[in-house]
Amino acid sequence: MLALLDKKNIIARPSYNRWLVPPAALAIHLSIGMAYGFSVFWLPLSQSIGITAPAPGDWKISTLGWMYTLFFVFLGSSAAVFGTWLEHHGPRKAGVVAAFCWGGGFFISALGVKTHQIWLLWLGSGVIGGCGLGLGYISPVSTLIKWFPDKRGMATGMAIMGFGGGAMIGAPLADRLMKSYATPNSVGVYETFLTLGVIYFVAMIAGAFTYRIPADGWRPHGWTPPKTNGSGMITDGHVHVKNAHKTPQFWLLWGVLCMNVSAGIGILGMASPMLQEVFGGRLIGVDAALGDLDAAQKATVATVGAAFAGLLSLFNIGGRIFWASLSDHIGRKTTYFIFFALGMALYVTTSVAGSGRMVALFVAAFCVILTMYGGGFATIPAYLADLFGSQYVGAIHGRLLTAWSTAGVLGPVLVNYIREFQVSRGVPKEAAYNVTLYVLAGLLLVGFICNLLVRPVDRKHFMTDAELAEERKALRANQPDHVVVSTKPSMLSWAKVAVGWTLVGMPLSWGLFITFQKAAAFFH
Q: Could you list the residue range(s) of the whole structural domain that residue 174 is in?
């Protein structure tokens, strides 16, 4: 069984249909994407003793929220630490380890709920689950880039779209499971953790065992690599992971990702309360601030706020595949120029729209902003492959994800503390976000400058042909020493592709349907 995980045993034949790999990647990313939906557990866990209301000994939501912080700290750190290991051992072994970490994290957390030990939740879901997030997130990146050298952006966009969509499936599923398992003596979280642990483990194992990697020198059927002299933004060489961080390009892209994510993630977490506080009763046709509404009116406004968050999640997901695919045609650098230039203009626009009580303009601006937040995640792996080559792109991407860990702290801290500072100085809540929006526009300006400074990697950093040959010989046994051109996929292989896409498409469609239902309340 262990031999099935070896990298040398997952090299595909020339007849293998490369379109089988994206559904496998989606199976893993849709599973680990539930990290975004963990807030669905906060309220039930905060009254796991009191059942209907918090009781002495119950956990505070702020205490539980450390799981969310640990997720993204360990996602970035584990991706950085184990990225090179992934390149050496292949995506299947990494996917299996990710399944054990992510699924096992749910089991450990279930034990923590059962025994009421908060450290087990932090360890299970936060630390071990966070490591599963990191390995699961980067496991398909280099694989997809090697299978789709002609469509790098689109390929990684399809997979990373799954990470954004995981909460669309997981959050409503968890909510229904908790209601089903709830009893007069239990809020149903323990049983829900066990159920989700099994579901995600099975889905991730299925995805991992579907992974194949192309032989060295493999090319898609009918595709000829574009000619390059090595001086353009798409390189013909390969940089070793141990040398990538020695280049200015790595740190410039680190800044690009960090600034883009900091601006987006800070708003994503505060989107619903921001809309409610800025527009208050105007969301339901009442000319009054939020604090002046009665309980029923506030409940209606809260429903609109939740619908707004659902609407943003749709644009976040759509932006991942749209912008990443577009980058294949206009280039990665140009794509990020659009992110930063348009983003700065839109943050200023939202401030003006909030002050002018223009709800439609405010909502439209944030919807576009969230497409670029998601698109930034999906486009960065292809940007790395263009500059550093595909040989170690998974490991380099893993190290770059430390920018995400940094942004996961920086963005929310900026948004929350600037707002609190403004309110403490007597600024009305509906105006307290104006300074924040300008600060976030400033972050995008920093990202714009970083992207502007990106140049092709100096040839001195690339591996020589001899070094590359030796490295590939060490990484992969029994590889051909000539270019392998794929044969035209058979009808049977296309039938397998249809089955694979159906299996991941059904839960994704259900999640989209639920999210559309929630978002529809906004327009009502």
A: 19-215
Domain contains 35: yes
CB 149 within 8 A of CB 413: no
Which amino acid type is present at position 391?
A: Q
Q: How far, in Å, CA of 448 to CA of 469, rounded?
A: 37
Tell me the whole-structure pTM to 2 decimals: 0.86
Contact yes or no for 304/280 (Cβ under 8 A): no
Measured in whole angstroms, the distance separating CA 82 from the mean position of its chain's CA atoms is: 18
CATH code, domain with 198? 1.20.1250.20
CA 197 to chain centre: 20
Q: Are 235 and 462 in contact (CB under 8 A)?
A: yes
Q: In degrees, to the nearest 5, what angle opens at C-alpha 493 toward C-alphas 489 and 494?
A: 85
Answer yes or no: is 152 within a domain.
Answer: yes
Within-domain flag for 25? yes
Tokens of 117: 């030990």
Cβ burial of 465 (10 Å; 0-12, 13-18, 19+) is: exposed
Task: Name the phi and psi angles at 175, rounded to 5.
Answer: -60, -45
Tell me which amino acid residue 284 is. Answer: I
Residues 345-361: tens digit of each pLDDT? 999 999 899 888 888 89
